[in-house]
Amino acid sequence: MLAIDAGNSKTDVAVVTTDGQVLTTARGGAFRPPAVGLRPALNALADTVTHAFETAGITSADHVSACLANADLPIEEQQLTAALTARAWGTTVEVRNDTFAILRAGVTEPRGVAVVCGAGINCVGMHHDRTARFPALGRISGDWGGGWHLSEEALWHAARADDGRGEATALSDTLPAHFGLPDMASLIEALHLEHIAPSRRHELTPVLFRTAADGDPVARSIIDHQADEVVAMATVALTRLNLLTEETPVLLGGSVLAAQHPRLDTRIRTLLSERAPKAVPRVVKESPVLGAALLGMDHLNAPRDAQERLRVHYR
After folding, report:
1. What is the model's pLDDT at position 8?
2. Three-class DSSP labels, the chain
3. What's the pTM?
C-alpha cells in the first residue's frame, strides 16, 4: 500500500505492507494545485512517490490511500482520484481531504471528530462508514479562523486602534515591533508595497498570542473567537453523526492548536464540556501519514495487530 499525506507545507509518503510493516518513507514539498496547477503539483508528488518506490524495490502498489490538501469538495476528491489513478501508482485509489489523516491517526477505529487549525481551519468526523465535513473554503463557506486569518484580524484591529476607529490595543505596538518598525502606519505601508513579503504575515499569529497572554483585551477576544469556532465545528460534526451522547474523541491538530496556547486550549476544553459533555478532546501528536496508512488498512480490511504494528513504527 502507498500512503500519502500531502499538505500545504510538505508531503510525506510511506510504502506499507498489509501486515503493518513500513518498507520505506519519503518526504517532499508542498502540494498546492490551486497555486501551481494540478499537473505541476502531481509531478512534484510523483518525484517523492518514485523515490519511495525505488527504495522499496517496487513499481506500484495494490492500493493508494491519499490524504491531500485542497481536496475540499467531493468533486475535487473525484478529480484527484482520477488524476492519481492515471499515474498507475496502485490498482485502487482512495482520495480524502488531509484532515481525515489527522483524525485517523488519533483514533484506534474510524470513529471521532477532528478539528484542524493551521494556516486555515477545517473539521471532519467519521463514524465508520458515515462522515461529516465542511467545505472549508474560507469566508464564502462560513469559516472563521486559522493562522492566516488570525494574523489579518490582528492587523485589522491594530490599524483601527491606531487611527482612532477602534478600541485601543497593544497590537498597535507589538505587530510593527516584530518587523522592527516604529508604528502601524509604517507596517501598513511596508505590507502594501511588499517591502515585507506577503508570506511573512503568518509571523504575526504568534505575536497575537503573546499579546493576548500579556493581558490585552482585544487580542484575547480574537483568541476567544477562535476557540468558539473550533467548538462550533466540533459540536456540529458530533451532532450530524449522532455522537453527542456517546463518549467520542475530538482530535485537535494543526500548528495553532498543537501549540496548546493556554487561553485557547482552556477555552476550547471548557466550551466542549458545556456543549458536548461526552467529547474527549486530545491534541494529535501522531504523524498524519500514519492516518493515511490506517485509512488504507481500513480499506483493505487489515487485522488489528497489523494496525498496531504500524502505530508502533510511528511511535
Report:
1. 81
2. CEEEEECCCCEEEEEECCCCCEEEEEEECCCCHHHHCHHHHHHHHHHHHHHHHHHHCCCCEEEEEEEECCCCCHHHHHHHHHHHHHCCCEEEEEEEECHHHHHHHCCCCCEEEEEEECCCEEEEEEECCEEEECCCCCHHHCCCCCHHHHHHHHHHHHHHHHHCCCCCCCHHHHHHHHCCCCCHHHHHHHHHCCCCCHHHHHHHHHHHHHHHHCCCHHHHHHHHHHHHHHHHHHHHHHHHCCCCCCCEEEEEECHHHHCCCHHHHHHHHHHHHHHCCCEEEEECCCCHHHHHHHHHHHHCCCCHHHHHHHHHHHC
3. 0.89
